[in-house]
Amino acid sequence: MKIEAYELYTDPVTNEQGLHIELKFTSESKKYSDYKWVQTVGTNDPDGGSGKFTMYNDPHRVGGNNGPFYYAKSTNPEYGSLIRNGNKHVFTDSPTRARQATTIGWRAELSLVGFNSSGAHAVHTLYYGFNLYPSGHSLTMPLISIPYRNNYWWLKNRI
Known about the structure:
This protein is mainly beta. Helix content is 0%, strand content 50%.
């Protein structure tokens, strides 16, 4: 997995702040027949400033359909940021929030999941995020690669 971008980001339209991440993965193995991304987010600003820390599967789909996989650009061009081209997979995300009177924290665990006859398996998992402080300062958290030793047993029925 190659990190193409990991940086603070300001949305040019809304002026909200956050980060931008872009990852590239090229499969050079026949071990998995397909790959998908799973991202879980934890934040104290899930709905415009309630302050309650909430975890959810991202993207949070309207109508409560929180399937486990991140949108694919080919099937959801208005939302998707996963681009597949043969054995190449690109993931981009630019989560932002409006600055509040209290510190906003946003964290994500992102896994590239490979599928084969034995199920779904985390190929690579990253932990990342950002803080927005009332003072006007912003901070990206270190991008950390974390081991995920178990397979995703809960995805077996969603393949």
